[in-house]
From TrEMBL:
Protein name: Putative glutamate--cysteine ligase 2
EC number, as in UniProt: 6.3.2.2
InterPro entries in alphabetical order: GCL_type2/YbdK_subfam, GCS2, Gln_synth/guanido_kin_cat_dom, YbdK
Catalytic activity: L-cysteine + L-glutamate + ATP = gamma-L-glutamyl-L-cysteine + ADP + phosphate + H(+)
Pfam families the record matches: GCS2
SUPFAM superfamilies for the chain: Glutamine synthetase/guanido kinase (SSF55931)
Species per Swiss-Prot/TrEMBL record: Streptomyces gulbargensis
Keyword field: ATP-binding, Ligase, Nucleotide-binding
PANTHER family (alphabetical): GLUTAMATE--CYSTEINE LIGASE 2-RELATED
Length: 385
């Protein structure tokens, strides 16, 4: 199915109109695994120590996560998606190099295909989470891809959050890369999204209406005592508490760098489209969070195979139709940044050949065991395969 030439919706801003292109930053969480067995290895401290010993910027780019079997890197804020791809490839390679020094490989897998009992990292915050949330904390060895898109103010950011709500789950469908859980096929494209939504603050949200409405809701949630700090506000998208950005948090970490770039491209398109709609006085869609939870579940279950819920009607449709609607919705914004052709091609390629979840299943169905699936995915992650 081709998406070229579809009629765009929403207000158009001509290219070269003088608007500053929004910057995008990507955070990828990666698994650390054994080359021999494919099982996750608790060596994040050694990986971070290796980066720190070199005295380069790796010490600032790489960070620990909840469990010792994973590590995260963050790109710089960039406007050009070609540069974004180069940086993602570079840092995957750097993490891989430091992982090898620690006797491990790095794999862009959103869940471990093999059974694992994760080892929690040390620290007061992580200890508090384990005491507060029990088994939910222990089970959260999941790897996501978070996309930060710059906004001019909290008011613009909240207007964007309110207007993006019915489109976000499509990014989870595109990125689905976690079909296996504890040694079995989960039946999901993104089982990570189901595990992640066990956190009490995670998932779709009701509209906020204004920046004050957003901050008031966050204060109310923190005042309950259930959450420790603003970093535990796990909405599908939120205002970053560290940067002047909207942070979109629905995607699995993607097996291929090109899929990560596609997710980042579409995320920026959604932010810009929503901001333009706000400036034009268009109201935010009024779908309930409950309805969006169903759409999110459907996306995690079906992924690129479909069906998905249509983001305008909230009725079942094919993945091709739902993703075509996404491209139509964001077309003006994508054309203005020069990303439309690449986005169309990226969607068409994924629909034709599948994404990370399908690739993992194909590797397994070729007669390989799950350990070999992990090894193959590690080679894909660092560009060897």
């Amino acid at each position: 199915m081709t998406f070229a030439g579809r009629r765009p919706t929403g207000p158009a801003v001509p290219a070269g109109a003088g608007a500053t292109m929004r910057t995008v930053g990507v955070e990828e969480e990666l698994l650390l695994v054994s080359e021999r067995t494919g099982e996750p290895l608790a060596v994040s401290s050694a990986v971070l120590a290796s980066a720190a010993a070199e005295g380069d910027d790796g010490e600032d780019v790489l960070e620990k996560e909840l469990h010792q079997e994973q590590v995260e890197f963050a790109t710089r804020p960039l406007a050009d998606m070609g540069a974004m791809r180069e940086e993602i490839v570079r840092w995957r390679g750097e993490v891989g190099r430091h992982a090898e020094r620690a006797g491990a490989r790095v794999a862009a897998l959103a869940t471990s295909p093999l059974p694992v009992e994760p080892s929690r990292n040390l620290g007061r915050r992580y200890r508090w989470m384990a005491e507060q949330f029990g088994l939910t904390t222990q089970e959260q060895l999941t790897c996501g891809c978070h996309v930060h898109v710059s906004v001019e103010s909290d008011e613009e950011g909240v207007a964007v959050l309110d207007r993006m709500r019915p489109w976000l789950y499509l990014l989870n469908a595109i990125s689905g890369n976690s079909p296996f859980w504890q040694g079995v096929d989960s039946g999901y494209s993104s089982y990570r999204s189901r595990v992640w939504n066990r956190w009490p603050s995670a998932g779709p949200y009701e509209p906020f209406g204004s920046a004050e409405g957003y901050h008031s809701r966050v204060r109310d949630m923190l005042d309950t005592g259930v959450l420790r700090d603003p970093g535990m506000i796990y909405f599908d998208a939120r205002l970053s508490h560290n940067y002047p950005t909207v942070e979109i948090r629905v995607a699995d970490v993607c097996l291929e760098p090109d899929t990560t770039v596609l997710v980042a491209t579409l995320a920026r398109g959604l932010v810009e489209t929503a901001a333009r709609a706000w400036r034009e006085g268009e109201p935010a869609p009024d779908f309930s969070a409950g309805l969006l939870r169903l759409a999110s579940w459907r996306a995690g279950r079906s992924g690129l195979q479909g069906p998905l819920l249509h983001p305008v009607t909230m009725r079942e449709t094919s993945a091709e139709t739902a993703l075509g609607a996404l491209l139509t919705h964001t077309e003006h914004a994508l054309r203005d940044t020069g990303d439309h052709e690449a986005a169309v091609k990226g969607i068409e390629t994924l629909l034709a050949h599948g994404g990370g979840a399908q690739r993992q299943r194909e590797l397994y169905e070729e007669g390989r065991d799950l350990a070999e699936v992990v090894r193959a995915c590690a080679r894909i992650t660092t560009g060897e395969l």
